[in-house]
Design brief:
8-stranded mixed beta sheet, binds 2-acetamido-2-deoxy-beta-D-glucopyranose, about 450 residues, FKTN_N, transmembrane, Beta Polymerase, domain 2, Ribitol-5-phosphate transferase FKTN N-terminal domain-containing protein, FKTN/MNN4/W02B3.4-1, transmembrane helix, about 30% helix, alpha+beta, 9-stranded mixed beta sheet
Length: about 450
């Protein structure tokens, strides 16, 4: 009878399901929730991962005791954790007890919000008592640097704790005025022990870095309470592109002594409006998830004088064409800007200009082509095309007008491509079709396509 069969099969399923659940529970209690590795392996020797786990455990206990809310920023460990979220790793074999923190690298890195660090001799003493050796790396406080003052004050940038050949790196993160977190580069002074740590293997410190404030969660990793970024894949991708360049305040000061800023009301007004336009552009593009960088005159202003060039009349940004989105025009309109012109097309020489009051925001789209990168220009009245060629570059963060913003890391090459070797001398009479060092004639748009490709509003 089919009805009886169905009931029977259902009951069988429920019973076997429950049994399997019980088995899983048992397995979980017995093998998984055990706090950390057994300290001695079967042969009675400490394995490398036992030592690493112990080192991290000792450090975390100290940090907790002294209320230092460090969080895990170790790229290898976070990678294991993010892969684990996608698929359970193989639980067999050596990785059973220390699956995330034992990375087979001799370094584990943590970060600490520097405002939570009070210079605490007790902490360092207690670390010493536990057997840690400490290398403390300091550097100048960039938050005090500006055009008016150059910083002299030293602040802690990195702590390296060493125990049993393992290094715990603590990266100090400082709040900067563009509402982001910054850490300094790790530079060894000549009297320091160059063999203290495998410095080349460190995730942090080869360069300064800039980060958005990460959302953190407290979790249990390998039996230890650890704070980690909530969105690990976002943090890891931020980490890969975190390199930060400070503005060259010293050179900017020298420049401004030679060529003092125009303090006329019109110039002061322009600089203020350019700042709010740049903030608006950054906000709009951030919503669209489109990376951009300072280009042309705005980039030169940052590089040369850490400020806006008063007579430049516009704000220039660059965007890689692969990051183009068709809703960009609507987004800027919603932000209160009006489209002034649209030249070219996605396949060739695209350029957008928006107006905010009387300042222009120029968005140049950049095309990658072998070992060069170029952007296009169009002369509205003639349909003539131009091409501006740059050597390839990567993107770094900087702070400009209280904004965390990208610039080409190879800024000097970029500026020199555009402005030649005399970039450091102000030029007021600038013709975008002939003045740039890197401009090339690039033909004419066919008149039949002008309606589409040469739009002026
Ligand atoms: C994590 O960040 C990525 C990239 O920013 C995003 O695409 C993803 O939706 C985020 N995941 C969660 C769970 O918020």
């Amino acid at each position: 009878m089919p009805r009886v069969n169905r009931t029977f099969v259902l009951s069988l399923l429920i019973v076997s399901g429950s049994l399997f659940l019980l088995f899983q529970l048992y397995y979980y209690r017995k093998y998984v929730s055990k706090p950390g590795p057994q300290i001695l392996s079967r042969t009675g020797h400490l394995t490398a991962s036992d030592v690493q786990w112990q080192t991290v455990k000792t450090f975390l206990a100290l940090a907790q005791h002294f209320r230092l809310p460090v969080f895990l920023v170790d790229t290898a460990a976070l990678m294991l954790l993010s892969q684990d979220a996608l698929r359970q790793r193989d639980w067999q074999g050596g990785g059973l007890h220390c699956r995330f923190l034992c990375t087979s690298r001799p370094v584990t890195s943590f970060a600490l919000h520097a405002n939570l660090w009070k210079y605490e001799p007790g902490f360092l003493l207690a670390a010493e008592e536990k057997g840690f050796e400490l290398l403390e790396l300091k550097g100048e406080d960039p938050r005090l640097a500006s055009l008016d003052t150059l910083s002299g004050e030293e602040i802690p940038l990195h702590f390296l704790f060493r125990l049993h050949g393992y290094i715990i790196q603590v990266v100090f993160l400082y709040e900067r005025s563009g509402n982001y977190l910054w850490h300094g580069a790790l530079r060894l002074k000549s009297n320091m022990d160059r063999s203290f740590a495998p410095f080349k293997l460190l995730d942090y410190g080869h360069h300064a870095g800039a980060y958005d404030r990460p959302d953190l969660v407290l979790t249990v990793l390998d039996g230890l309470d650890v704070r980690v970024p909530r969105n690990i894949s976002r943090f890891l991708s931020e980490q890969r592109h975190a390199r930060f360049l400070e503005c060259r305040y010293h050179d900017a000061r020298n420049f401004l002594q030679l060529y003092p800023d125009d303090m006329s009301p019109a110039a002061v007004d322009f600089r203020r409006n350019a700042k709010s336009l740049l903030h608006l552009a950054a906000q709009t593009l951030a919503h669209l998830n489109i990376p951009f960088w300072l280009s042309s005159g705005t980039c030169l202003g940052w590089f040369r004088q850490c400020s806006v060039i008063s007579y430049s009349h516009d704000v220039d940004v660059g965007i890689f064409i692969i990051d183009f989105r068709s809703d960009i025009i609507a987004a800027f309109r919603d932000a209160g800007l009006s489209l002034k012109h649209k030249f070219g097309k996605v396949e060739d020489s695209l350029e957008l200009s928006f107006l905010s009051e009387d300042i222009k925001l120029d968005i140049f789209f950049f095309y990658e082509d072998g070992d060069i990168v170029w952007n296009g220009g169009t002369q509205a009245k003639s349909g003539r095309k131009f091409k501006y060629v740059f050597p390839r570059f990567s993107l770094c963060w900087t702070e400009f007008l209280e904004l965390k913003v990208r610039i080409p890391c190879e800024t000097l090459d970029y500026v020199m491509a555009n402005y030649g070797t005399s970039w450091s001398v102000p030029v007021r009479a600038w013709d975008w079709k002939s003045s740039p060092s890197n401009v090339q004639e690039n033909g004419v748009w066919p008149p039949s396509e002008w309606a589409d490709l040469v739009q002026v509003y």
